[in-house]
Amino acid sequence: MIQRSIRFSFALILLGISAAGSASAQYHYGGARRGGGSYGEQGIYFILEGMTQNVRNADAVVATTESSQNFGGGVNVLNPVLPDWDDEFTGRLGVGYRWAGGSKLSGSFWAFESTQRASGNGPVGGFLHFAVGPPIRTGGGFVGNVASPGFYDASTEISASTADIAWAKIQEVSDRFGVEWSLGLRYATFEETTTGVYDEAASSDAAFGAVRYDARKSNEGTMIGARAGIRGSYRFLSSFSASTGLAFSVLDGELEASSTLSPTGTVNSATVPTAAVAFSDDGRSGHTLDFDVQLAWHSSSDTFKVWLGWEQSRWEGIAADLVRNFPGTTAPLRDRDAVTFSGYKVGIRFGF
Predict the structure, then answer these.
(1) What is the pLDDT of residues 171-186, one digit of tens each?
(2) How many whole angstroms separate alpha carbon 256 and alpha carbon 303?
(3) β-strand partners of 297
(4) What domain range includes position 328?
């Protein structure tokens, strides 16, 4: 998807450049240039975007169930419990100053937050493999890693935010097509927290609550770095345009991660220790890749603009899950180094 998005973005930009010589009309309303880049009036402008976004590729597995058919011709089935993430309403705020020559200085802020929850019993006669918290080593081997049939109840919350500041320059390639180049700074934060309980018995069993564990894990990333972007915009009618943008950020910063598994049952809390792990490294790096497409309506002087669009942002490095697959884990998970935020949006821009 990312590679196709990159190819589409550059294809639109190159298409507009190749058509530069064939454009024949130029529009002037109140002194505002009406080419694809749309300089608009000089002055302050504000941007507000409302979005319905979803976090993807988080792989926030809370348990793995395993059915058991211990006979010839039987089939044992492993099934990771991966709850769906709902679409969440979020938004972006921006403010900037535009010069008549096509240069802009802008800042923006975006934030996202979503929570998922899952609970249930393991399969009758089968197994429930725990996914959160380091298994606890005891004299008799690891505990807190698998149960039969078992029970789980876990919630995961992911929040993320960006703060950007950028200088941009609009170049009018033709009467209808423009390219905007931007260079600036990005500050990004990512936090993932999972809390839950595991029980060795099913919720309907008389032994439910006797051997229980409280599980928790947290991944936090804070990074800052440079961000460069390009946007191509094509004015196919005097008041309507289509545009696509691509931006890449290289970031440096810190990752912190921790996880605990604590016995809390009426039987095991007095005899089993707690397992804990903590990780902190301020020498980490990461990057983000942002892509979007928009269809917009412009006022005659370009002081007001409304658009519909779709965007996707891939966060790599800063969103790594560093607290999974510990010694004693009975159903290891695939590594998770990146997550993606994507969704639809509606936006407005107005200036003074």
Answers:
(1) 989 989 999 999 999 9
(2) 44
(3) 240, 306
(4) 2-19+29-58+82-118+151-351
